[in-house]
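This part of the workshop introduces the protein records we will be handling. The structure tokens are whole numbers drawn from a learned vocabulary of backbone shapes. The record below serves as our worked example for the rest of this section.

===
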Amino acid sequence: MIKVLPGFCALTAHPAWFPSSWTAASALWFWWDGGGGRGGGRGGGGTRSIFKSPQHGGAQDSVSRTMAGTQNRTGSETQDSVSRTITGPENRTGSDELIFFVNGRKIVERNPDPETTLLTYLRRKLGLTGTKLGCAEGGCGACTVMVSRYQPASQRLLHCAVNACLAPLCSLHLVAVTTVEGIGSVARKLHPVQERIARAHGSQCGFCTPGIVMSMYTLLRNNPRPSMADVEEAFQGNLCRCTGYRPILEGYKTFTVDGGCCGGKGKDGCCMTNGNGGLQNSKDGSEEATSLYNTADFEPYDPTQEVIFPPELMSLSKCGESSRSLRFRGERTTWLQPDSLHEFLLLKWKHPDARVVVGNTEVGIEVKFKNMAYPVVLAPGSIAELNAVTHTEDGIVFGAACTLSHMGAVLRKAVQSLPPHQTEVFQAVLEQLQWFAGQQIRNVAAVGGNIMTASPISDLNPVFMAAGCKLTLMDKDGSREVLMDDSFFTGYRKTAVEPQEILLSIHIPYSQKSQFISAFKQSPRREDDISIVTAAMSVTFSPGTDVVKDLRLSFGGMAPVTVLARRTADRLLGRQWGEELLQEACSLLAEEMSLDPSAPGGMVSYRRTLTLSLFYKFYLRVLQKLRLQGLSVQEVSSECLSATEVYRPETPSSVQVYQAVPEGQSLGDVVGRPIMHLSALKQATGEAVYCDDVPLYENELYLALITSTKAHARILSVDTAAAERSPGVVCCLFASDVPGSNVTGMRQDETVFADGQVTCVGHIVGAVVADTQLHAQRAAKAVKIQYEELEPVITIQEAIVAQSFYKPIRTIQSGDLEAGFKQADHILDGEIHIGGQEHFYLETNVTLAVPREDGEMELFISSQSPSDSQAFVAKALGVPANRVLVRVKRMGGGFGGKESRTSVLSTVVAVAADKLKRPVRCMLDRDEDMLITGGRHPFYGKYKVGFLQTGKVVALDVTFYSNAGNSMDLSQAIMERALFHMENSYSIPNVRGQGFICRTNLPSNTAFRGFGGPQGMMVAENWITDVAHCLGRSAEEVRRLNLYLEGESTPYNQILHGVTLDRCWDECLSRSEYERRRAAADLFNRQNRWTKRGLAVVPTKFGISFTATFLNQAGALVHIYRDGSVLLTHGGTEMGQGLHTKMVQVASRVLGIPCARIYVSETSTNTVANTSPTAASASSDLNGAAVLNACQTLLKRLEPYRTQNPKGSWEDWVKAAYLDRVNLSANGFYRTPDLGYDFDTNSGRAFNYYSYGVACSEVEIDCLTGAHKNLSTTIVMDVGHSLNPAIDVGQVEGGFMQGLGLFTLEELHYSPRGVLLTRGPGSYKIPAFGDIPTQLTVSLLRDAPNDKAIFASKAVGEPPLFLASSVFYAIKDAVRAARAESGTTGPFRLDSPASAERIRTACCDRFTKLCPPAQPGTFTPWSVRV
């Protein structure tokens, strides 16, 4: 136990982390390799650093979540809060005391473990759970906190946003840490940063919200009036999967000097109309409203009222305490923090193999994900010489421990003050720093660490090499200076630095008057992403000429080390800078920058092409600069100028339009009004409790999974001896330990534990239960399994060859297909592959199982389907379902991924808890979650389409293949929905669709927002685009011609009623100014060779209902208590979509009482039984009707008392009914009527109704790199009469951005043997803040009531996602323009996602022809398309 001084509750230590293997990816140098590809290396190399998750012992008493929450914002802290101190146990290891402050509380830790992170300490030891674990690699920002230090030299405070998941606890000596709890709370007082993100509707699931709040808070502490550019930069290290980012930026615009104004660019007026009224009623019921919140409600921000830095820390820092030597001993690692350069050199001599830590953004990743262990760590971050910045006659010298943020600030100042010709190198470094990782990483990562990490995909090392930077190395006997050239990196992650040496500094030189330098980076996502290829190029000319005197071309991502293209450069010396040099340079580079076709990272042809394309850009830039110096060189033609431009992001602007409530609607009736998500404020303060935030039980254990490393194999033996000998291990579990049935899964074709055979990498073989997470995970790694490998089926193509399909093979056919093709003027065939998608909910799967009496089991699960979880656990335990209670408070995102696959974890944890009769917890690490739980189904579509010369489609024959993985799960229903959406929004008289579900050796794929619909519609949009290209017509013309009309029939013979496609289409074209944009884009394309713009207008028609008829039911339970308060429970779960908020709105309207009187506590199986999953976009419809039913029952019971006392209050009527012994609890129930479709007869009603929408998007592509910009998107969505416009707009925007990831960015890579290679934010990229369209308009269609759902509303969760395909087809439109420049016309294949690689490859030109791909079958690819 730790000692607690007066005023504090008892807390004990507990772990939150464990190591994780990186299997096949661990030794690769590909562009997201373990170092350069994660954490600090995500920008291309991090710091020499180390940490590992902690291991603490002991149990925990009741945890106080308010321990650190009494800090005030009155300009000072209370003496009481400063004097309270938490002191660790007596020192038993010879460690020094670690002193730091958390939210104004002094912490004295006497036995800090060097492998403990700040995040672990906050969550497990201090009970501050507002700071979240999202990835453990510094890639998502959920764990962001503010770290403040006093700098005696400058006598200034430094506030930095940092990733708590990477920050070693031992690095925090004399530091003040501020978490989201420390700046405000709902119970006390909200900070304006917390309030504004909530009231601006910028928090949906809320899991990312605390981290975003702290990034913004830290920015304001450093700059109380930032620009929007500052805000956008501050968020480069934060991800959100729910909101689509727009409301976050818009809410925080109100802090900026820009004031949040769009400058009047919005077609529908200034975007700041959000701050004025708009909540008024509409006179005619159709008036547009554009206000989703009122800025007048915001608490003013007063920067003078912030918490002060602890005076004691300032005193200790001033007296030299911060610079003394420190030693901390842990279980496996000793942390040595020298106080002088001399001591550091002696320690490095004594411990030559010790790792050096400054920011811990690189070695921490090695320890966490590569299971590395380092006995000695040296932490020289406070040594003055290593932090010094010295301006010399020929450049600037940076100490190796200078952070990248500090280096950037110094270089920016130098660029402003020095002549431009001297700052070419500095500007190249700044260009790379702009896109290097996120702000949290740059704040701690050191320049020396970036160099010494020796990442082959480093962003900065190519610049340092091209510029001829010099490094000063030192040991105890002296120093030496080395040139940073291609001899410095001696091998993969190896340098010429001797083991006993340290890197003291780097000298970055001034550029010369005749020298020009440019730096380039191409990555899947522009901000906070690792590189595919980086390059830096420097040319020096003989004075007054265009004759090359010196040329250095440096590349990352083209070899296991950063390389110089020496042969190419040498051949070009003495040559004039012109077209002839360009041609030869490209030929030479194509030869010199070769890659093995099997090279790690793949994309070999693309990477080789990039070296040529980037050189061409450099060539053009240099031509421009030479002309500016007055030299007579070739002029860059106007059509090529865009290739010389440096990308600068624009601040996005947005407009949201919805229908105001009718004039007569009471102010107390909140239905149709944009009220805030009911949990938003709690989410913004960190007080919202998620599953893993539940306090630890006293005798709780932790579980770690043992998973297969083979895709298909027999298990020959399992050796647990080493695991059972490991510290803290309680037991190992396997199939024989399951007390009930080991058979599980939606189709009973899975097992709780593998039994004799494994069928995918990540298949759960067993589990280890131990006293801590770290011990459990280490022991799980120690289990040895011997396999007999069997041949796996990995891809759809392999499944087709092997005829490996699940039954049944579904078919929908309508009309006379043969006659249709005979009628057609033209027939074309085509195909498209649509990649899978990772859910990337910010909160990974987590389960806490607590055994109770009589075989009861209580489970806290992050699940969309509590009843399914209940059933699976009951079956595994061999008990009836009434013994299993599943409770779901809220989820940190779900998107379908927590509908069925949650049971993979929950059953295992429940079995462990049952066996041991103790609480057991497991929260998957991000890489485990991605490996085990599956995602969206990859699809392959083949089609044959017949059409008339007019563009009217008359016949369609389409075949779908989906990659289901190693079990059926929900794949049949997903394929059925794909078939139901195979024609999207187009009326086709003769059609046939077939669906084959491929059985493969991948983890089972599952539900994901859209549930097969997006894949089916994507194929439809591909063939209709091909039709337009074939005819030489506008794709929009062909789409409009084929749109469904009222009363037409679908291929499954359902008559369409209430069709609003034409209205959505016309309004979308009008609001987007499509004709003007099209004309402008055509003109732009004629004027620009290497940059093209494209537009696309895409409709959607999404069927609403579960296709499994029995699921279209819902229950509700409503209690009215004696004081008049109402407890509402329904069958749906809250995952950020605002379901609970909408249900409270429904109950408020029906009961006629304020929302404040109604509360939703949680979803549980003992309140509403037999619930359907919260899925299919139908939860508001189903549960809303059930709530309506229950409330109407209660109103009927209360009616006599209202009649008796018409002037009484709600409380009076409730009291009277209670005294009269009236039941004030009511069950509600609803089943959707008239549903049921029969595939055999192609008859019945598949859907209750349809949601419609249309989107118009414009993009700009860089034909030389494949990068693209999202210029504008206009969405018109039919949501009926919106229950809550703020929530519905949020769902439209969030769904759109998730679709944007699916169709343009997110790509899962599997090895040919079925190993997932993309397992975290370092390697798998979801859209970030910078991916929002520069102009975004969302309009909810007015006057479109829906008589099929609650209060005339419509579903909104899934339908908008597919509208993001408008960006894909806008990209395809732009690529078509680029291909036309090369003389290539007609239909062409572009698979999804439209990654930079695919875009660049499709823009065929002279550069791509120099780098042809190797022939398939002649090599083993690094990854395969599954």
Remarks:
- The chain has a mean pLDDT of 91.
- The radius of gyration is 31 Å.
- The CA atoms of residues 679 and 688 lie 7 Å apart.
- Residues 1179-1204 form the longest helix (26 residues).
